[in-house]
Amino acid sequence: MSSTLLLIQILNGLQFGVILFLIAAGLTLVFGVMDFINLAHGVQYMVGAYLTAAFAAATGSFWLGLALALPAALLIGLALELLVFRHLYERSHLDQVLATFGVIIFLGEAVRMVWGSAPIGVEMPEALSGSIEIAPGLLYPVWRLVIIAAGLGVGIGLYLTVHHTRIGMLMRAGASNAPMVSALGVDIRLLFTLVFGFGAMLAGFAGAMVAPILSVEPGMGDGILILAFVVIVIGGIGSIRGAFVAALLIGLVDTLGRFLAPMLLRLLLDPAAASQTGRALAPMLVYILMAVTLFVRPAGLFPARR
Amino acid sequence: MARRLRREWLPLGLFLALALVPVLAPLGPQSFILSLMTRIVVVALAALSLDLLIGKGGLVSFGHAACLGIGAYAVGILSAEGVTDGGAHLAVAIAAAAFFALATGAVAMRTDGVHFIMITLAFGQMLYFLATALSAYGGDDGITLPGRSTVLGRDVLASDTVLYLAALGALLAAYLLLRRIAASRFGRVLEGARDNPVRMEAIGFRPFRFRLAAYLISAMIAAVAGVLLANQTGFVSPATMAWQRSGELIFIVVLGGLGSLHGAILGAIAFILAEELLSHWSEHWRIVFGPLLILAVLFARGGLAGLLTKGARP
């Protein structure tokens, strides 16, 4: 009984981890390539979820909704880059934090004006809404497996793009020495814009994938944004590989911590105190992990080469 | 004297105007004005303490609301346990904030730049989740205070005017203290470490100690602001320590003008008045507030204090 429960929690942790990865991937690229802190990245995740909800409701099909939501998320990302972020690359990190904080406030309220504050639901595609037996007596929802597969697929695709294509090479070169790349005749501004829009679309994709299993609501991007930052700091800023490992690590630690902490503490404390302390400790675990990582390896687990 | 007056007119005028509030408040809706102004003064106090870190030390702490929360929770928890004495509230708040600052600062000060922003954010979040898990004290929902803190067994703070004056007194004391600190050798070393840590180390100072001390002072002042805030709202909840509150505090400091100290007060007045006016105008006031924030960052470099004193520099 306990081991099947544990297996479910591990799968849930993986699913949460790949979602974190999809968000953190864009964040770490933007951070690594442009040295730009984008707090508004979590909003892209929320926008992706809302757009999917709206388009799926309008067309009656989740897949059509997703297909329309992705380019729309890309366009919103590009528009933000053009209007606001472009003017901030040369500024201090402090200014970047503040201006993107303003974008969060604006888009959060815009979403509230269009769709209201109440959470809205999204229909899952019919064919994938069931559960399958992954071990004897253990049913697991197919959709969560689809999310895990999609996340792993995107991870592999990104790794290949960054390390084995020409555009990936330019990205890595831009990250280590932008003026030099520019002097060699590459339009670095265009490259930045592309990276930015692509990162925004990935976050939107993450939002679209979780829309059927979570409630789509205005504040949904805020909490996960902070976790995505934890991921890229632990993984090493600018490193896709680091983001991948750290995202899965954080997903597992957070999910298993909430499950195991009260159980383990029950060995030491009486049940009521154990569940209280466990609930207090579990959400803190990832932040403790981050503090310890920064203390031991200030540049993260896989620091990008400069 | 005249030159000094020209340089100091802004802080002088600010404190004079704030001191006139209790006299002028009866002309309008008195309790509303006093509660709004108390909130402004308390937030100004918190922003002032943050300005020591960001403006003087170049240390962008993204977890400053945690210190505010420590002060608020000191009042909330002690009151719930039957201790209503304001002196006890202040002592516990300051001691707890000092402990928190020493423990987290010792780790955070080993990093710099973006990593410092992120690690202070992480510590702030840790405290936030701790507060949501305090189910004995309301958990997520927070606790309503039975009444304001008492002073020597008497409920003098029950009067809105007295609470306002207490907050203003704390703000003035903190302002004068931080000015002394900024002008002292300690303050100079802090600024030196902000501009060039390597050089400071070469001439024999360890930035770590000075930064940690600044972090400690800043946290203790913010905890005092937290005690006052809890008394003003009569309510304590984890929302006080949410990361968005830390973001707002940073914004107030930058809006006012980094490192000028009185800029933080100016920023708090502007921020809360704008929030108050816009929220009366429409339920969706944030749709205007967000872009205003962005425009302020893009175009108002040097902050409000910089705009107002342009040309008056000695």
TrEMBL record, chain A:
UniProt key word Membrane: yes
CDD domains xref list: TM_PBP1_LivH_like
Keyword annotations from UniProtKB, A to Z: Amino-acid transport, Cell membrane, Membrane, Transmembrane, Transmembrane helix, Transport
Subcellular location(s) of the protein: Cell membrane
GO molecular function: transmembrane transporter activity
Superkingdom of origin: Bacteria
GO BP term (any one): amino acid transport
KW Protease (keyword) present: no
Transmembrane regions: 6-29, 36-56, 62-85, 97-122, 142-162, 190-214, 220-237, 244-265, 285-304
Membrane topology: Multi-pass membrane protein
Gene Ontology CC annotations of this record: plasma membrane
Family: Belongs to the binding-protein-dependent transport system permease family. LivHM subfamily.
Protein name: Amino acid/amide ABC transporter membrane protein 1 (HAAT family)
Species the sequence originates in: Enterovirga rhinocerotis
Automatic annotation (TrEMBL), chain B:
GO molecular function: branched-chain amino acid transmembrane transporter activity
Pfam families: BPD_transp_2
GO CC annotations, alphabetized: plasma membrane
Swiss-Prot/TrEMBL keywords: Cell membrane, Membrane, Transmembrane, Transmembrane helix
Keyword Transmembrane: yes
Domain of life: Bacteria
Localization, UniProt: Cell membrane
Protein name per the record: Amino acid/amide ABC transporter membrane protein 2 (HAAT family)
Species of the source: Enterovirga rhinocerotis
